[in-house]
Amino acid sequence: MTTDNSTIATGDEPPAQERVSREGATGNSRWPLYIAIIAIFVLFWVFGAINGKSTTTMLNLTVEGIMLGGILALGSVGLTLVYGVLKFSNFAHGDMMTIGAFVAFALMQVLPGYEAIGSFSFGWGLLLAMILAAPVVAALSLGVDFALFRPLRRRGASVVLLTMASLAAMFFLRSIIYLIWGADYHFYYQGRANPAMQLPFGITIQADKLFILVLALLMVGLVWVLLERTRMGKAMRATANNPDLAQVRGINTERVIQWTWIIAGSLAALGGVMYGLASQVRPEMGFVLLLPLFAGTILGGIGSPVGAFIGAMIIGVAFQLSSAFIDPTYGPGVAFMLMILVLIVRPMGLFTMGGD
Question: Minimal CA–CA distance to 137: which of 104, 171, 169, 106?
Answer without folding.
Answer: 104
